[in-house]
Amino acid sequence: xxxxxxxADNKQTKTPEQxxxxxxxxxxxxxxxxLRFNPQDPESVPHMQTxxxxxxxxxxxxxxxxxxxxxxxxxxxxxxxxxxxxxxxCAMMINGKPGLACRTLTRDLPEEFTLAPxxxxxxxxxxxxxxxxxxRDMSExxxxxxxxxxxxxxxxxxxxxxxxxxxxxxxxxxxxxECGCCIAGCGTVRIRPDFVGGVGINKIARFxxxxxxxxxxxxxxxxxxxxxxxxxxxxxxxxxxFCPKDLPLKTQIAFIRxxxxxxxxxxxxxxxxTHKKAIPIKVERH
Length: 286
Ligand code: SF4
Ligand code: SF4
Ligand code: FES
What we know:
Layout: E1 5-6, E2 13-14, H1 16-19, E3 29-36, E4 47-54, H2 61-71, E5 91-94, E6 97-100, E7 112-116, E8 122-125, E9 128-130, H3 131-142, H4 164-174, H5 181-184, H6 187-191, H7 197-209, H8 217-224, H9 238-242, H10 249-266
Parallel strand pairs: 3-7
Antiparallel strand pairs: 1-2, 3-4, 5-6, 5-7, 8-9
This protein binds iron/sulfur cluster (2 copies) and FE2/S2 (inorganic) cluster.
One iron/sulfur cluster (SF4) is lined by residues 185-188, 197-198, 233-239, 253.
């Protein structure tokens, strides 16, 4: 007897085994250990809490954390706004590495993994940190706005056209979402809390490119020409590796450091000892 089944519309044939309904896909049971601490609560003590959660298809950490908050622990604190890698608010330490929770698929993680808040930022509670406060402070120090000649903007004036390639180059650096991943991975920030990090140096690179900004390298040197700026960078490039927007931090840090070193050398003759100041070398005669 012919056991093949004829498909009415496309004339393909299937065996009964093939035609039978696929058994439901078995999902993993995830074990998610989360660092819990509420600094507002004097009773709270930092500790790891492990949750179990059945993984679903295409589950992101955004979905997983919402499931945990909705069905297991409504007190769990974490931040999300856009769910699309645009607002930068969901950055956290994912199995020890900084990353965006909304852009992380659980299937790319092992069955058991840890979540912790980003270090270097003020802790609000559990996985929520105040990156906004840090970024605002850095932006004020780096003066991250276009410094124009005109004191007042004339809205009736025709806009100046910008070279499309230059606009594109600025746009590449402007894609920073201020998530803080570069700061969380930065070794210098651990020893110098005033260090501006990859995000701060990238901002200088962005405004230095902008033809509307009237600042020159001497002005930028005042902002980043020291150890809290580009000369504090140890060049281990965790910022470049962890930036979820793939900003070219490696090249920008190297470029700004070279420009600031050139600028520093321009004023170097002023600090070199003059003949009068030079300390004579004593020659021992026997
Ligand atoms: S430079 Fe990259 S890692 Fe750093 S804040 Fe911007 S987007 Fe985030
Ligand atoms: S390369 Fe510099 S800015 Fe980037 S993580 Fe290392 S020390 Fe920080
Ligand atoms: S929620 Fe906006 S970047 Fe993740």
